[in-house]
Amino acid sequence: MNIRNWTVSYTGITRLRNSEINDIALHFSGSFKQGYRMSGQQIEKGRNEIAELKLNLSEYRGKWKSAKGLTKVCSWADEIIPDTPANFCRFNDAGEWIVSPKFVKNGWENLYNAYHNENLTTDEIQKAREVEEQEWWVNKSQSCKVI
Predict the structure, then answer these.
(1) Does the global pTM surpass 0.90?
(2) What is the mean pLDDT of residues 86-91?
């Protein structure tokens, strides 16, 4: 696998609009890394085909600052979330990470229920999986224009 990584520094402002509240300005600053690979003469987004490698091919490390000045670490990745505490997760035999019970309450409940909570009924697990597998970021009514 011939993978090349590029790192891009990012500083930006994201505006969220809500009809019930005023605009919220979110400030992000950090760096974004994306792995690519060559396939013949084509450049493709890198794919981690061996999950056990625990290799991030897409990764953002940065900080989020609220309009009121509160600053927090804001990191995400396609495999291992960077800058998390050492006890944040554990890995099962399949190489999947599971959030430690200490951190489940911090917004990871549904993910845990969908794939790792053995105390739920089949219907409860299915409902949690449906939420996890939604493509909420896709607005099907929008189309791209080619100019």
Answers:
(1) no
(2) 89
